[in-house]
Amino acid sequence: ADHLLEVDDLHVEFRTRDGVAKAINGVSFSLDEGETLAILGESGSGKSVTAQAIMGILDMPPGHIGGGRILFQGRDLLTMPEKERRAMRGPDVSMIFQDALSSLNPVFPVGWQIGEMFRKHRGMNRSDAYEQAVRLMERVNIPAAKERVKAYPHQFSGGMRQRIMIAMAIALDPKVLIADEPTTALDVTVQAQIMNLLKELQEEFHMGLILITHDLGVVADVADRIAVMYAGRIVERADVGDIYARPAHPYTRGLLESIPRLDQKGQTLSAIGGLPPSLLAMPDGCAFHPRCAFARDVCRSEIPPLEQIGPRRESACHFSEEVLNA
Ligand code: SF4
Ligand code: MG
Fold it and tell me: How far does the centroid of ligand 2 lie from the alpha carbon of residue 99, in Å?
């Protein structure tokens, strides 16, 4: 059967003055209705670029799809006429960003901006659109929505602004919702509230949800599966419980070890040493080898393919077995 969304061998490049940066090097994954996939990685791993490619909002040029397919309900978004694709943004595929303040327009009331979805896509008049905006603001738990529908973005807290973004994103009942670092700018308590809200909405509307984050800590209770990205590739993919219990890739292991633990206050965190590679000068072999405690000679020459290592588990490491048992 068709998946709701299927990304198949996606390649994305950026032409820069210093050469071609390969932001995405053959990424494949699928998403089904009602499923939550977390895409995890450091900045520069390609997770946001993957989202932008799905949404069709890559800065082009210099962004350039080097190959692959992105199938939505079996139809390839990459070969579809731009006009058709644009019409899908909102009703079919929708996205929320990290920075609600810069995504919202400061000079229009929030209700006007939420209502725009209904005026533009459903041809609603102003007052009906405002009514829908109030309904959505209530749904995302903004207190006194009726009174605040005509307030401006700066009159809301960061958490409330993110709720407004979520209201806009779900306005047209999308089948796929992509959230790119939706809670990064918020404090920890608000982060948890926003994550819970996303989970609730996902269940209510049976959406496919893609959560993009650098923080393994925030997705534990929300995601079904996790795909870990490093240097433009998926390096591990598994059910969330398996990732937490026993990571199979050294990079995932490093990410897990750097999650702050509430039960071990004051404990120094072991972050992964070193930096991700430059996309212009990728190391030979496994891109993670300069930072990897498990690396051996073969890692410097041979790129490990993403391979099945168990039921619903894949890892791209020459020594997955060893890592699993370490
Ligand atoms: Fe480390 Fe080698 Fe595995 Fe890459 S292939 S993650 S360098 S052990
Ligand atoms: Mg990003």
Answer: 11
**Counting ligands in written order, which one lies closest to the CA of residue 39?**
2
| Ligand 1 contact, 289 CB (< 6 A) | yes
Which residues are close to ligand 2, an ion, with C-beta < 5 A?
48
Ligand nearest to the CA of 305: 1
Q: How far is CA 205 from CA 33, 131, 141, 146, 177, in A?
A: 10, 20, 16, 23, 10
Is the Cβ–Cβ distance between 232 and 41 less than 8 Å? no
Which tokens is 192 given?
């948890």
The reply to whether ligand 1 has any atom less than 6 angstroms from the CB of 254 is no
User: Hey, which of 228, 235, 291, 294 would you mutate to test ligand 1's pocket, going by the most ligand atoms within 8 Å of its Cβ?
Assistant: 294
In this structure, which residue's CA is closest to atom 7 in ligand 1?
A: 289
Ligand 2 centroid from CA 59, angstroms: 14
User: Distance between CA atoms of 304 and 20, rounded to whole angstroms?
Assistant: 22
Q: Check if the beta carbon of residue 94 is closer than 8 Å to that of residue 117.
A: no
Query: Tens-digit pLDDT profile for the chain (326 aa)?
Result: 689 999 999 999 998 888 889 999 999 999 999 999 999 998 889 999 999 999 998 876 678 899 999 999 999 999 999 999 999 999 999 999 887 778 899 999 999 999 999 999 999 999 999 999 999 999 999 999 999 999 999 999 999 999 999 999 999 999 999 999 998 888 888 999 999 999 999 999 999 999 999 888 888 889 999 999 999 999 999 999 999 999 999 999 998 887 665 555 544 455 688 888 888 889 999 999 999 999 999 999 999 999 999 989 999 999 999 999 98
